[in-house]
């Protein structure tokens, strides 16, 4: 029975878990970046490059280089996101600090522009109230008439350059592992726990516990593991049914063999007397041997039908039925029974000719066995949308309604079927049922009015 609910693929579980972890890491990274940006912007709140330039010039005029050094150090301590560098004529920083690489680029561009333009273009007499850029170098006049060059490095990230160091990179990697490891563990547990349960059920089945089943919760899942669990349960049920059927078959065979063997012993004992009935007893021994041979042959045929590969030949079902009917008419003529059969157009099916003919012959001979003299057996072949239906109907005594479902079980015989002791081993309809099932068909029986039995065999039509 197909699972009625939609299947949730494990691919989507793994896919969503992975991207869920990536989303968490991305959001945390964005929050971290936003925090750094907020800190850098907030640290410069209220600062104005023009005011800073004015203050620096005042300090330079009044206190010289020493005053500028103290002023720069005070500004560094107060504003961590702003760096101020003051260079002398040899481009040496007054505090002995090394310029960042990008400031070297600014300084080179400034020197190149200074060589081409008058110095007055870069020296503002009084920047207060005028617009000064953070990235515009400013000249600071000293009391002795010399000049220093001041550079701003706003939004300084030097405090965060530690992020490029290997210990912090390792810490970030550990953070990513801390996020992904629990999610991966949960996903792995989601997959391996059901597989462990399925493995336990497989071991139980291999140990001979044919009633082994996967847990209901696992079989109720709507992903591939749930489908696998339900397939396993169906397989276990099928194996149990096959084993039970074979055990019942062996039990029935043993039971059926006792009667002819008992009669053989009796006939052999009587034949040893060598009286006038010796020939009769020898004939009886021969008949019992024939019954035993037929019983063993039919049993082997039934076992082979259950193990044969799926039929693959293209057949005309009309030809198969016609051949079986023509062969049965010889026996029907001796019993004064007519077989009514009108050959229809060809019906193409996929199957094995021998097993299909055996199934039809067993049903037809079963009808001949119980059909009264001067009656008719009707054989009809009709075509439906997807299947062909073959119906064989006799006017015999029929079958009790309670026995219809058991009619195709091995060695089953109804009370009405016991016309004579040992009249059939009860395997004919079982062979027919096994052959039709091997062709993915169905076989059923029903009583007809006023009397008789109709056996219906349905076979799938050949599809293009």
Task: Describe, in short, the structure shown.
Helices cover 54% and strands 12% of the residues.
Q: For the record, give the distance between the C-alpha atoms at the N and C termini, rounded to a whole number.
A: 26 Å
CATH topology of the domain at 310-460: Heat Shock Protein 90
CATH C-level label of the domain at 310-460: Alpha Beta
CATH architecture type of the domain at 310-460: 2-Layer Sandwich
SS element count, helices: 10
Keywords:
about 475 residues, alpha+beta, Beta-Lactamase, Heat Shock Protein 90, 5-stranded mixed beta sheet, 3-stranded antiparallel beta sheet, about 55% helix, rod-shaped
Give a description of the structure.
There is one protein chain. With 464 residues, the chain is an alpha+beta fold. Among the domains are: 49-154, Beta-Lactamase (2-Layer Sandwich); 310-460, Heat Shock Protein 90. The chain is built from ten helices and ten strands. It has helices spanning 10-43, 49-78, 101-116, 166-206, 216-219, 224-271, 278-307, 317-334, 353-370, 428-438; strands spanning 83-87, 138-141, 147-153, 313-316, 338-341, 348-351, 376-383, 387-393, 442-447, 453-460. The strands form three sheets. A five-stranded mixed β-sheet has the order 5-7-8-10-9. Strands 1-3-2 form a three-stranded antiparallel β-sheet, covered by helices on one side. Strands 4-6 form a two-stranded antiparallel sheet. Strand 9 (442-447) and strand 10 (453-460) form a beta hairpin. Helix 7 (278-307) packs parallel to helix 10 (428-438), helix 8 runs parallel beside helix 9 and helix 9 (353-370) runs antiparallel to helix 10. It is rod-shaped. The two termini are 26 Å apart. 21% of the residues are buried.
């Amino acid at each position: 029975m197909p699972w009625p609910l939609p299947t949730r693929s494990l691919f989507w579980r793994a896919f969503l878990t992975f991207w869920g972890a990536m989303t968490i890491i991305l959001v945390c990274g964005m929050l971290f970046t936003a925090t750094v940006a907020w800190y850098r912007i907030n640290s410069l709140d209220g600062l104005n490059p023009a005011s800073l330039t004015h203050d620096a010039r005042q300090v330079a005029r009044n206190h010289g280089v020493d005053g500028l050094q103290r002023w720069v150090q005070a500004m560094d301590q107060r504003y961590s996101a702003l760096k101020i560098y003051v260079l002398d004529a040899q481009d040496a920083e007054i505090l002995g600090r090394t310029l960042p690489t990008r400031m070297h680029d600014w300084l080179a561009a400034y020197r190149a522009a200074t060589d081409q333009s008058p110095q007055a273009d870069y020296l503002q007499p009084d920047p207060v109230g005028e617009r000064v850029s953070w990235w515009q170098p400013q000249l600071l006049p000293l009391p002795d008439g010399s000049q220093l060059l001041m550079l701003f490095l706003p939004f300084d990230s030097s405090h965060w350059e530690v992020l490029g160091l290997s210990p912090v990179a390792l810490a970030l990697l550990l953070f990513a592992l801390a996020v992904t490891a629990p999610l991966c563990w949960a996903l792995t547990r989601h997959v391996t726990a059901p597989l462990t349960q399925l493995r336990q059920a497989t071991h139980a089945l291999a140990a001979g516990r044919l009633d082994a089943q996967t847990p209901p919760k696992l079989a109720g899942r709507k992903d591939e593991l749930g489908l696998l669990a339900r397939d396993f349960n169906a397989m276990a049920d099928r194996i149990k049914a096959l084993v039970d059927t074979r055990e019942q078959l062996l039990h029935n065979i043993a039971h059926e063999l006792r009667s002819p063997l008992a009669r053989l012993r009796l006939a052999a004992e009587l034949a040893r007397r060598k009286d006038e009935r010796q020939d009769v007893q020898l004939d009886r021994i021969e008949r019992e041997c024939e019954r035993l041979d037929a019983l063993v042959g039919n049993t082997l045929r039934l076992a082979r039908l259950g193990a044969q590969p799926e039929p693959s030949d293209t057949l005309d079902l009309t030809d198969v039925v016609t051949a079986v009917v023509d062969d049965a008419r010889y026996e029907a003529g001796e019993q004064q029974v007519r077989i009514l059969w009108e050959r229809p157009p060809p019906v193409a099916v996929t199957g094995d000719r021998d097993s299909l003919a055996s199934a039809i012959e067993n049903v037809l001979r079963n009808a001949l066995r119980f059909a009264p003299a001067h009656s008719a057996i009707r054989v009809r072949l009709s075509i439906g949308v997807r299947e062909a239906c073959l119906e064989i109907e006799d006017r015999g005594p029929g079958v009790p309604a309670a026995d219809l479902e058991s009619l195709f079980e091995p060695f089953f015989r109804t009370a009405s079927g016991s016309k004579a002791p040992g009249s059939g081993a009860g395997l004919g309809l079982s062979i027919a049922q096994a052959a039709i099932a091997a062709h993915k068909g169905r076989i059923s029986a029903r009583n007809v009015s006023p009397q008789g039995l109709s056996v219906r065999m349905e076979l799938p039509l050949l599809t293009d």
